[in-house]
Amino acid sequence: MERAVSPVIGVVLLVACTVLLSATVGAMVLAYEPAEPASTVVVSGAVDADGNELTLILDRGGPLDTRELSVVVEVDGEPLETQPTVPAYSQSGFTGFPSGPFNAGTDPEWNRGESASLTVAKTTNGPQPVPGSSVEVRIYENDLPVATVEATAE
């Protein structure tokens, strides 16, 4: 009779272990909270061909620390001879002072809804945006791409 009891006890223990393991895995799955997705940064822009002004607006994501940003500007697929430095005061290849968080004299935190602008110098930087030009601005944070803005100069 002892032989008949051993398989039954073994099956009961195996079922108990399976139930316990299933309950543990189930509890872990239910308690798991996925990490929040990385913030997607969306920037829109406009180009005033008459004034050579590039205006960028942080539409979604951020805030961004402009001290960690770099900006690359291309007009009709050709990069500007002198690329902007942000944040900055007056700089070679650009006229006047950058506005918003691109200006070194302001808060370097670029928040949603805030605009920043640069004016490309007409005589010392090129190519110049003319009405209808395709202007692409790529924004990098610590050398990693954050956003790309494509605009048509008006």
Automatic annotation (TrEMBL):
Superkingdom field: Archaea
Archaeal Type IV pilin N-terminal domain boundaries: 3-77
Alphabetical list of InterPro entries matching this protein: Flagellin/pilin_N_arc (IPR013373), Pilin_N_archaeal (IPR012859)
Full protein name: Archaeal Type IV pilin N-terminal domain-containing protein
Organism: Halalkalicoccus jeotgali (strain DSM 18796 / CECT 7217 / JCM 14584 / KCTC 4019 / B3)
